[in-house]
Specification:
The complex is a heterodimer.
Chain A lengths: L2 H9 L10 H12 L4 H11 L3 H8 L13 E6 L2 H4 L3 H12 L5 E2 L5 E6 L11 E3 L2 E4 L6 H10 L1
Parallel strand pairs in A: 1-3
Antiparallel strand pairs in A: 1-4, 2-3, 4-5
Helix pairs in contact in A: 1-2, 1-3, 2-3, 3-4
Chain B lengths: L3 E2 H5 L7 H4 L3 H7 L3 H11 L11 H6 L12 E6 L8 H8 L1 H14 L4 E6 L4 H13 L2 H4 L3 E6 L9 H8 L23 E5 H13 L1 H4 L3 E2 L2 E2 L1 E8 L5 E6 L4 H8 L9 E5 L8 E2 L9 H6 L8 E6 L4 H15 L5 H18 L5 H14 L7 H15 L1 H9 L17 H4 L11
Parallel strand pairs in B: 2-3, 2-5, 3-4, 8-12
Antiparallel strand pairs in B: 6-7, 8-9, 10-11, 10-12
The chains are: A alpha+beta, B alpha/beta.
Chain lengths: ~150, ~425
């Protein structure tokens, strides 16, 4: 199905005249394009019969929507308290070293975006790292080289 | 322990298939009752909401007007936007017992006469989302009985756990809280009568109907009936979720279930119910984990996220990290929260860096006062309340930061130089206190 058709399928789940499909539509568009460029925002807006400004106002509110390009792999390290007291900062720094970029940045080769993230809801299994939206638990700095190696191989 | 995919841990004992769950027997029982009888059963059980506000579930359902009184569709919205630092129970509940959860949704839909259920699940929970969607596909059409269940994914916003912000978000708007009244029971999703319940609450409904409300009410203690899933994390040996009888002592939760302090360290403090709750010192943990007992020590169960902190934790840094969280997650609608949370971070940072004078400590508490109770929702209040509690209970440590011109931990705190998302893009200390 095309993005337009996928978005129409989402719209059908909600009452007619509601704007509820905006978030599912943005998610679908981002999965297809990697990030939400102005062109993609316009495409989503047209599919939803909304204005691009409205759609962008929603995209800009939520942390998971990317309004700038991200790397091939998204690495998000939880640094909230429960993870931090068991070493999340050291895990983050290990990822920065292995990926060759600071938190909040994308590596020069475009392979990785590394960033910190607020509580991921896995506090008792820290440090939690979300890699391409799937959680890894009990991550230690020593685990990081192997994780990054695996991602490079993909 | 080597890092693992979460599925290996959580799914080891999960019952994710419909066949293994053994059918929806409690749902059958509920559908043989009238909606009013089901609600009555919940009232008898004395179940109170597990999301944090602790409102009696049966009473909440009873507020929904009949369709004769208000001719509009009814909605059930389940809050699966679990984002409170320290809480991860709903994650595991959805992953382990998705069918018990779905059965609870269907029983509740019957009780409040609704045929549209929306489950708002936080966007980061890809694992639980997939498990839930797969479980839903297994449910036979006749069991659904004409009820449509839509799983709506969030996209990373703590504020959407607040029920009116969640409804805004579900309507395709920015997740900003509404003013109340009207309450969702009268005017909620699409301005129609709506019941909003937490995942754990909904998952408790089926067992209550199966065993009977009166039987359920025999569990736990007065005012906190039944069981509670607590999330234990931080500097303990065995972090994880544990289902306890309400009223179990916090000390036993930490030392028996949690296995005690990790790395042979000393206990310093406990955040008892998620980041938003008043801190307890190591001398305050001989308290029952229930509503009344925790209220007596002026704190709350909240969303039952118990964060255990050892003697390496600098309390000023704890305040910074949580304030950075609230600053990041403030939706920006109310000025005291939007500006105040940033100020709290900045003043705490000034203390931590040794730039603070005595008046900054007063200013800190003054800012807390100027946030607390002055916004539409409790997000800013939470920051104000917890920071004030850190000062009240660890004033000597705050004073030492002023007297010694910096952090007495000298760079050896467990929260030293932790990079928060709010500070990420500058990669430097957050904001300076405006002159």
């Amino acid at each position: 199905m095309t993005l337009y058709e996928l978005i129409q399928a989402e719209r059908a789940k909600y009452p007619v005249d509601s704007q509820s499909a905006v978030m599912p539509a943005l998610r679908l568009a981002q999965e297809e394009h990697g990030w939400l460029s102005p062109e993609v925002i316009r495409e989503v807006a047209e599919a939803l019969e909304e204005t691009p400004a409205y759609v962008k106002s929603i995209a800009s509110f939520y942390d998971q929507f990317h309004l700038a390009p991200v790397g091939e792999h998204l690495i998000e390290v939880c640094t909230n308290v429960s993870c931090a007291v068991v070493g999340a900062q050291q895990v983050l720094e290990a990822f920065e070293n292995e990926c060759g970029c600071h938190a909040g940045e994308t590596s020069d080769d475009g392979k990785f975006t590394v960033r910190t993230i607020e509580c991921l809801g896995g506090c008792g299994w820290g440090t939690i790292v979300s890699i391409d939206h799937h959680y890894r638990t009990y991550v230690k700095p020593d685990d990081v080289p192997q994780i990054v190696e695996e991602l490079r191989g993909e | 322990m080597a890092s693992k995919q979460i599925d290996e841990i959580v799914l080891a004992n999960a019952t994710t298939s419909y066949a293994a769950y053994g059918g929806y027997k409690a749902l059958e029982k509920a559908r043989a009752m009238t909606p009013a009888e089901v609600t009555e059963e919940l009232m008898t059980s004395e179940l109170r909401g597990r999301g944090g506000a602790f409102f009696p579930t049966g009473r909440k359902w009873s507020f929904v007007p009949s369709k004769e009184q208000l001719p509009k569709p009814h909605y059930l919205v389940v809050n699966a936007d679990e984002s409170e630092p320290g809480s991860f129970k709903d994650n595991e509940i959805l992953s382990r017992v998705p069918h018990r959860f779905i059965e609870g949704c269907l029983i509740t839909a019957h009780a409040v006469d609704c045929s549209h259920v929306f489950v708002y699940i936080r966007g980061e929970y890809s694992g639980p989302y997939e498990i839930l969607v797969n479980a839903l596909e297994e449910v036979p059409r006749e069991v659904l009985g004409g009820v449509t269940l839509v799983v709506h994914r969030g996209a990373g916003a703590y504020i959407c756990g607040e029920e009116t912000a969640l409804l805004e978000s579900l309507e395709g708007k920015r997740g900003q809280p509404r003013s109340k009244p009207p309450f969702p029971a009268i005017s909620g999703l699409y301005a129609a009568p709506t019941v909003v319940n937490n995942v754990e609450t909904i998952t408790t409904v089926a067992p209550i109907i199966a065993m009977g409300g009166a039987e359920y009410a025999k569990l736990g203690v007065p005012d906190t009936r039944g069981t509670r899933v607590v999330s234990v994390s931080g500097n303990v040996v065995n972090g994880g979720n544990y289902e306890i009888d309400a009223g179990m002592s916090l000390r036993d939760i930490i030392y028996d279930l949690g296995g005690g302090m990790a790395d042979g360290r000393e206990l310093k403090a406990v955040v008892p119910g998620g980041s938003s709750t008043v801190i307890l010192t190591k001398d305050e943990i001989d308290v029952g984990y229930d509503f009344d007992s925790l209220a007596q020590v002026r704190t709350a169960m909240g969303s039952a996220g118990i964060v255990v902190l050892d003697d390496r934790c600098c309390i000023v840094q704890l305040g910074i990290r949580f304030s950075e969280f609230y600053e990041h997650e403030s939706c920006g609608k109310c000025t005291p929260c939007r500006e105040g949370t940033r100020w709290l971070t900045a003043i705490l940072r000034k203390l931590e860096d040794g730039r603070a004078t005595q008046s900054d400590l007063d200013l800190l508490l003054d800012v807390c006062d100027r946030i607390n109770g002055k916004c539409l929702c409790p997000l800013g209040d939470s920051d104000a309340i917890i920071v004030a509690s850190y000062v009240a209970k660890f004033r000597d440590e705050f004073q030492a930061h002023i007297d010694e011109g910096g952090c007495p931990f000298g760079g050896h705190s467990s929260l030293d130089h932790v990079l928060a998302p709010v500070a990420m893009h500058t990669h430097s200390p957050v904001t300076q206190v405006p002159a």
